[in-house]
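User: quick one, sequence for these tokens?
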């Protein structure tokens, strides 16, 4: 099992590894470009080779989260074209940096009676992204949507998209605890075990490649993506304890996407040397380690 967080790459790849060291993180997620803009930061081959070596030395895995505007299930054709182009570019950069996967969102709500069409359009967008990227080792990971009325918001929809794409070695799934809950999966307490049972039956655990750990301020099935600190939201600590200690996930990569401020509200945070917000990551990751039964880094 690898544990870590979404970290900033704004100060460069060496600084990213320094952040990971301070957290003791072995699962790292980044944006490879501006998450809200179209600009892309180029990485020299020599710098990338040094970074890949650093990952290997730490036995760490890297994941890239595609920008927020990359929505492979978007209703608008132009948005789907952009999504395919950017996802393809991130897959290529993923290979350059030694990343295991590129996580993408599906998109917005599906109009009544348009699910089949939206699924077909989503499959087509993913196929275009994979074709444009070429034969990358880096996988495209489809993140479950934060709402059952959105494409990709149920396990059945995820299964249908995966089957439609037909690239089992290149496409997988990323689950998010906040998204699951707001999509209607009650993973509180032992519900996490039942959710995994359902995933295994509907899709198969071999397709599950990464997990985002987030508590939430949203209600069950509300469809709102509001991340919160581990154990301080609607999910509570038992949900994460049961998830992290499930033997089927003993080799899983878990990454925090929790807020970078406000941990424990009035509680003081330890001063961290790295980027702003790392203090909250330290506290959240310490909670995760305790819940997983892993007190040491």
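Assistant:
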């Amino acid at each position: 099992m690898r544990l870590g967080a979404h970290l900033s790459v704004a100060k460069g790849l060496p600084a990213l590894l320094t952040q990971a060291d301070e957290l003791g993180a072995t699962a790292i997620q980044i944006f490879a470009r501006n998450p809200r803009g179209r600009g892309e930061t180029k990485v020299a081959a020599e710098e990338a080779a040094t970074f890949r070596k650093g990952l290997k030395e730490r036995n760490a895995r890297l994941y890239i989260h595609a920008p927020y505007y990359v929505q492979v299930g978007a209703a608008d054709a132009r948005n789907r074209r952009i999504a395919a182009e950017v996802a393809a570019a991130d897959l290529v950069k993923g290979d350059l940096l030694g990343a295991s996967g590129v996580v993408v969102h599906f998109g917005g709500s599906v109009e009544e009676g348009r699910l089949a069409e939206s699924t077909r359009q989503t499959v087509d967008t993913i196929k275009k992204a994979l074709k444009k990227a070429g034969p990358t080792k880096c996988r495209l990971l489809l993140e479950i949507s934060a709402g059952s009325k959105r494409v990709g918001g149920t396990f059945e929809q995820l299964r249908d998209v995966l089957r439609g794409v037909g690239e089992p070695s290149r496409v997988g799934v990323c689950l998010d605890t906040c998204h699951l809950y707001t999509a209607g999966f009650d993973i509180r307490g032992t519900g996490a075990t039942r959710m995994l049972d359902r995933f295994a039956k509907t899709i198969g655990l071999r397709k599950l490649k990464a997990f985002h750990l987030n508590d939430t301020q949203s209600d069950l099935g509300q469809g709102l993506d509001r991340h919160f600190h581990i154990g301080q939201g609607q999910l509570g600590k038992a949900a994460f304890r049961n998830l992290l200690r499930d033997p089927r996930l003993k080799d899983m990569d878990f990454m925090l996407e929790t807020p970078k401020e406000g941990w424990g509200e009035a509680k003081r945070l330890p001063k961290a040397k790295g980027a702003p917000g790392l203090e909250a990551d330290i506290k959240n990751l310490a909670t995760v380690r305790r819940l997983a039964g892993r007190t040491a880094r």
